[in-house]
Structures
1.
Amino acid sequence: MTTAVDVAVIDYGMGNLHSVAKALQRVAPKANVWVGDDPAIIRRANRVVYPGVGAIRDCMGEVRRRGLDEVIVEVARSKPLLGICVGMQGLMHHSSENNGIDCLDVFPDEVVFFGDAFAKESCLSSAEQRLKVPHMGWNTVQQCHSHPLWKGIKNNARFYFVHSYFVNAKSCLSTVGITQYGLDIAAAIARDNIFAVQFHPEKSHRDGLQLLDNFMQWDGNYSC
Amino acid sequence: MPLAKRIIPCLDVDNGRVVKGVQFVDIRDAGDPVEVARRYNEQGADEITFLDITASHEGRDTTLHTVERMASEVFIPLTVGGGVRELEDIRRLLNAGADKVAINTAAIFNPKFVREAAERFGSQCIVVAIDAKQVSAPSYAHANDQLGSGGRWEIFTHGGRKPTGLDAVEWAVKMVGYGAGEILLTSMDQDGVKQGFDLALTHRVCAAVNVPVIASGGVGSLQHLADGVSVGGADAVLAASIFHFGEYTVAQAKQYMAERGIEMRLL
């Protein structure tokens, strides 16, 4: 086996990983950016990105089929890990998408549907209850806790979101970034060596690239 | 509401070059797509839409390479449309670096294709493009009533030559039911003539569906862009020629809209 890759982007056959890898290569031109599903290489990588696009049932199905679930849980205990979008959701306890799917349980929280949440929340105005789903576009992220990955990014900077399911920012104890879309959603969560975002840094122009740059330089230390 | 309205420059690409026509004819060259996309990215474009109008198979391969090059340089969302007929077309475009694909004619001939595409790749990446023409006018009660009531718009294919008999508003609702995550709504009457969006059509579709709607066709001034959002109710506005030929930058357009109280992402 050759030397460890600088960053492993976990490929479980869903969606477009090209842009995540390209964006990482852009911010770290000398880094060895590897994309694949070989558990041995992921285990040895210096840092790992767990991306995701698509429906959670197919994503979790492929993660388990390729034997990547154990590796991700292991990485989540040991080295810098960045979850993106469905990758963040996959780290949660459970998602209500596709009639309910068990996720990797790295965080104890639930992933819920905007439509259900809007219907339940009696304090929302009728305009808020009619908000469009998916939540698609550029929204502000309030940095409610400082974190090394926020370095060089202004509070309330805009990032690109596209999702119909979310983690509630108020109930999630690991929230470090909040976005308002009818309700407060967890735009970013962090614990120890794990950072995970609901938005797409690889599609969020300068601030997104800054966050990826910060991740590539992060030693994995964080204490809130 | 902090979610920003989006400005989306649109690149019509034929055999690897950006072109722009007036009402789908009279084509002018507007440059290399990757160069053009990079310029808009620097100006603060919120997304790029790439419509492949190439007819030939060789041209299709050129498109995949262009999408690949674009996705390596431009780190904002990229929607690609034109000739998307099979799940395999979608897979190839997503793998080349597209974030969303726009389905137009194939949806009309085979609506189930939209459902299959949304189930396979997720609604978030399936845009249904609708090209509509007004077939009966709304009635305007007051001189400054820009929306009117009534009126009917029909979907046309083959560059506006073939009517389908489909009502544009009903079609949008049906496509969302089939899993479309966004509607790209083009008025063929307005396209390229620079008199502004068809606001009545835009408003009608926006009120009927619960997914984002992109208004397209007819932008000739910054006021038109603002009207698309404030009057039409669109979530995003798409324009080509006002940006391609240097009349305005995307940054100027955003500044203009922000000054009129529209939530925008400013760099």
2.
Amino acid sequence: MAAAAAVAVKHPGAPRNLTEPIAVRVGLTLVALAYLLLFLLVPLAAVFAEALQKGWTAYVNAVTEPVALSALWLTLLTAGIAVPLNLVFGVAAAWAIAKFDFPGKNALITLIDLPFAVSPVISGMIFILLFGRLGYLGPWLQAHDLKIVFAVPGLALATIFVTFPFVARELIPVMQAAGTEEEEAARVLGAGGWATFWRVTLPSVKWGLLFGVILCNARAMGEFGAVSVVSGHIRGKTNTLPLHVEILYNEYNFQAAFAVASLLTFLALLTLVLKSFIEWRSSRRAESPSEPTA
Amino acid sequence: MSIEVRNVTKKFGEFVAVNNVSLRVPSGELVALLGPSGSGKTSLLRIIAGLEQADAGRVLFEGEDATARDVRHRGVGFVFQHYALFRHMSVFENVAFGLRVRPRAARPSEKQIQGRVMELLKLVQLDWLANRLPSELSGGQRQRIALARALAVEPQVLLLDEPFGSLDAKVRQELRRWLRRLHDDIRLTSVFVTHDQEEALEVADRVVVMDHGRVEQVGTPQEVFDHPATSFVMGFLGNVNIFHGRVEDGQAILGPLHLDYPEHPHAESLPAAGYTRPHELEVDRAEGAGGGFWAVLRHANTAGAVVKLELVAGENGAVQVETTREQYRTLHPATGERLYVRPRQVRIFLEPR
């Protein structure tokens, strides 16, 4: 009933006879809620139940042991490297695609989507093939005493590759919708390219940008496949949180595995809260019409 | 500052938007570029602004070649059709933008900016909206803010792209009279684009009629209205009745119209068309002199400043006539009545074969 009332409030102008009968509305809402409960909330609750099955002390021990802390640190580090780089790349790519016409534009759009199309495991293996001991650049790297795979740079590279579409994909439609008139207006008023970008282009897409960054960050922290291949699973050295969870689980240390998993869950929940806050903010902006009305 | 356009051509792929156009706008004039959509008027305006590069030809400001000058340094104010206000900035910041992005040496102090912006907002009579966002304004208000923003940088030339295009009829009329008064006050060389002939004739000092990327005619509103140079100009500037036919031996036989045409005294027959405006036709019950014809009154629209009559002249189709309310009352014709239609003025244009 509450859901039906909310629908009615959201569309005050919708005539009664255009909405579905109340039974249909309530029924559909219940189906959706049941689905959410079964596939999202139950597993979520299970994570915390399992994590706390041996009590609070065991939980705290599992998440504060040095190996877990190092995994947490490594996860934050890779995300901290990948997200800013993809932010810069994404803004540059979206700017180029949305505001300019150039040959090869469609090829660039396709390339940006590539990580979505390729299985993460394959992307990890590409880096082994390139930088591994037997890879194309392996001997050169060894001669110069540089370590990429089975080390932090490899983790960062794999994470960057897997997450680079997010910011660009989020920004391109927003920038295209904004058009180029405001930039033209800025130029006529004497603004250079740099001032136009900082004062006009970027502020007009800031919510889309933040949204892209959050999605990018969520994926960067949760990435398993690609990272698993290049990590080498060296405890306390090259294990990120998802990898650490897997190791604990494979050692039948279920309680610790779920405790560490709950950390990732917290990160995910935080992301979701931020995401819905941003959606709420940007929808509020969208409601005030920006198109000419009179 | 005067503007001169010399032999400018602009193509978009195969489409020729502007075809070898030359034009002079004397300093201080308000000029309208008038034409249907696709006539190249907006492209020409954007080339003058520097937002578009011409494929050939030159643009001169005050006799000085500005073709290669960047849009930032042309000293033009540009008002966009959809305003293009910065939607995340307040009205005040929108108007202040052009001053704030100046290089440090040329940038006015915060206090000067404050003063200048409020002065401009008073000029457009919207100083009470300084802290609003563009999305909170009506279309007419946005357009005036866009104008204030363009004027803030003290441009030498003001260019307006369909400035009233997306406003409703009443706001549009008010705003164009206001623009005319504003121009009379500040006397800034201005060019505006419009597809509305009434707007062009009412506001502009001079009208440039364009079609298919070419200039058809340049003149004062009176000149282009009373002495259209081509059939296109005649047809575009207001309603018109067209009678197709031919000219030969100093005579024009145009459907039901038979007129003298001394301009073509030769025996060779050429296709031609007679153009006459609804108010240049008279109706009467008696047959008068001057090569008119009989037609049946089908409908009279008396709701308006003039009475609009629709008549049918045999197989020659419908004829529109406008008459004063007094004449209509005196004559008082009934629907279905046969009336004699007499042209006071017909312009004859030879048609391409």
